[in-house]
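Lesson 9: reading folded outputs for more than one chain in a single document. The general rule is that every protein is listed as its sequence immediately followed by its structure tokens, and records are never interleaved. Here is the first one.
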Amino acid sequence: MAGVPVAVSPSEGWDGNDGPWSTFALGFGNPPQFVRVLVSTTCPQPWAVDPLGCAATDPPDCVSSRGGQFNKNDSSTWQDQGLYELDQELNLGYTGNGDFGLDSISLGYPGSGALTVEHQLLATIASKDYYIATWGIAPRPTNLTKSDPKEATFAPEDSYQSLLSTLKQSQEIPRLKQAPASLTLGGYDASRFTPSNLTFDLADDNSRDLVVGVHSISTVGSPQKLLPTPILAFIDATVPHIWLPLEACQMFETFFGISWDASSDLYLVNETTHQALTAQNASLTTTIGTNTLTPEVVNITLPYASFDLQVLDTYPNVANSTRYFPLRRAMNDTQYTLGRTFLQEAYLIADYERSTFSVNQCRFAENVPADIHPILPLNATNGTNGTNAQNSRHKHDTGGLSAGITALVAVLSVIIFAIIVAIVVVFWRRKLNGKALDRSQSDPDQSDHVPELQNEIELKPELHADHVPPPELHGISTGPLEMEVEVAAAEVSGIKSPRYELHG
């Protein structure tokens, strides 16, 4: 039913080798094979981990730690489209290939009554750069070939991108309890944030559209400047880290007493440093605007707990699981990125029909019911006359989502280890205390659909392991892991593709 919020419950699994993070459940193929996924605001299709993603040399729990896997050979409805390079976060060094195909996608576990859609484009991946499967919800179709775009362009129909979910969680202000993720598309939860009243325009590059001007990063209380000059940065829920200029990272090193590890390219934190940082309990305020000069700004404050993450020994070049500070050294301005760490405390609302978005400080309170509102389409007739989604948001408009709206609301917020990333998407993670992760699962609620989405992206033919992406491309680097298996690619647009390798 258009205009009626539809909940997509989280899996209640806690996954990832750099968090961990709360995930959602998707079923791929017929019969459905269920995997746990993280939401991506930049990827336009879902990815599932291929059986080739876990080798005999990997730990015994590899499949489970990666959220499960999808074996396309066990699906009666898989239609292979060929092997292509994954073109997400390439500028950050992420690499990998995907075997793309058409198949069914189910939202949630059996018995949940969730939506199942047929003939949807998805990919199976082996690369460990993208350790957990990805639920790509970026509103644009995918073009799998340059030779004849009309023949191989896929725009989701009755897509999973149409789902809406309410936020049903209680949080402790000290943020010492975990809270599950929540996903909403086409609306927002007014109970979850303090409105910023500042509207941003989506950038022209639809693969890097959520760009903000970062004016400053400073400590709360006794202000300490941690960003030497303003920068333009991309908000990306796909990646966990915050990528800043080297000089800014060095300021963080001095203030927090953290050290960069050249092998892993991470700021690893030992127990002594962790105790000192916990006692210091510094909060950081990131001041952003529509550009680097505007006087109209939004302040997003993150407590130290938002930076207190854990990296596992399955992460490239990390010998033993340890705490880490999710800051990365950017090589150039194409890498300036605000990832899930930033979005733990920022509620992001993106309205793709109007090409606008907003970033708001998350608000946490106990026992406050969700207050879900749809983002009205441009042709709304309930008194708003299709006013800007940001204004509609503050007026608490109600009304249905027409077949023409493509409104995604991304919410990313935390309860110390909880992230709300949404569309409205909300990611939650829990703090590790040296205990095993809880991977219990609960059923998602029912779902609905929205119409075809617009804009186009091209996936390039597969490149081999020795390929080094040029700096102008987009993405995060964890370093490639070796595992090569030859896979015969299927025909696309009547042209037989050469054989490529699906890398682990």
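And here is the second record, again sequence then tokens.
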Amino acid sequence: MAPSERDPIQEGSSITPTQENTAPSGKSPWANKYRGATVEDLDPPPALSSNPTDSISNALMRAYERDYTHLTVVSRDTRALLGYLSIPRLRILLKDGKIMDSDPVERAMLKFRRKGSVYKVITMDTPLEELEDFFTGGVDGSGPQDFAVVTDASRRFVLGVATRSDLEEFVKRRPA
């Protein structure tokens, strides 16, 4: 195989599939590794949720304990999904002094847009090809996403959170 024809996935490179590096057929270079796998095969960890009134320090501590990069934010009363906390973004806001660790989560959370937006339901049965499309912004054109909230089909229960890195790790573990 010529140097320009090397398979970066087999060499252990951490590439992210984009339109620039997709296979000629329009499929991701990872597509042949999925072979019918679904989100359930990623074995996503259970979602860790905070309430809007929880302190940022409490949410950070819980995220660090489990090595999570995203926390969902749910209503204390109805358990409805309101938004999420991005831990890397939270660190920046704290460092820049825009928020304090004693502030409530609602000051730093990113709210889900409900009106006028297409909501892509990601369930345990969602094929990994669809999840990859979601991460790269191809599902509804809303732009790249860092993580997916995994729910039941009726969107009543948050079952877990899947990240782009979960997908990358799955591809690395999957035999060729």
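What the second record shows: The two ends are 17 Å apart (CA to CA).
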